[in-house]
């Protein structure tokens, strides 16, 4: 029983250390979110930076990148834009199953000339494979990148799939399933049509 008690004690110590670590750095993350909501973007960035040692980062890098983009719109300092895009890239690695982050990175990096249309298509395709039915923006961005690249063959190959999706979506919209009217999907459905 001595080995069992030692093992339980070690487990409890590790658990306490982990909890204390996450609580300490989590407080900075929460402070960053509060500062962001109060439109104090520099303070938000500082707090998010202090929260980076978190082991369970959740959407830290995404939130931090948005704070950088907000500061960029205030100052037009291109370094802030660069840092925001780099953080979004990190977020794709921290959250490889988050379709929203994949799309956000591709859209932002592509629109600002940091990645090619071909690279953006990879990220848009990944976002669609992760979440094929909930966000029509992913399809719109993918199809737009194909148009920009001049890849008519790939664009046409997606057409039947997207038309079926839009037909299903129009039924959901008519019935307002899942409060779909309150999302950006109606806008993207219209733009895709």
Supply database-style keywords.
193 residues, mainly alpha, 9 helices
Overview of the molecule:
The chain is mainly α and about 190 residues long. It is built from 9 helices and no strands. The mean pLDDT is about 85.
The parts where pLDDT drops under 50 for at least 5 residues are none
Mean pLDDT: 86
- Global structural class: mainly alpha
How much is the radius of gyration in Å?
21 Å
Number of strands: 0
* Strand content range: under 5%
- Give the helices and strands as they follow along the chain: HHHHHHHHH
Range of helix content:
over 70%
Quick one: overall form?
A: globular
Termini Cα gap: 69 Å
Tally of helical runs: 9
Instruction: Characterize the largest beta sheet: strand count, sense, and whether it forms a barrel.
Output: none
The gist of it:
By secondary structure, the protein is mostly helical.
Could you give the topology of this structure?
Elements lengths: L1 H36 L3 H11 L8 H16 L2 H17 L4 H13 L5 H14 L5 H14 L2 H24 L9 H8 L1
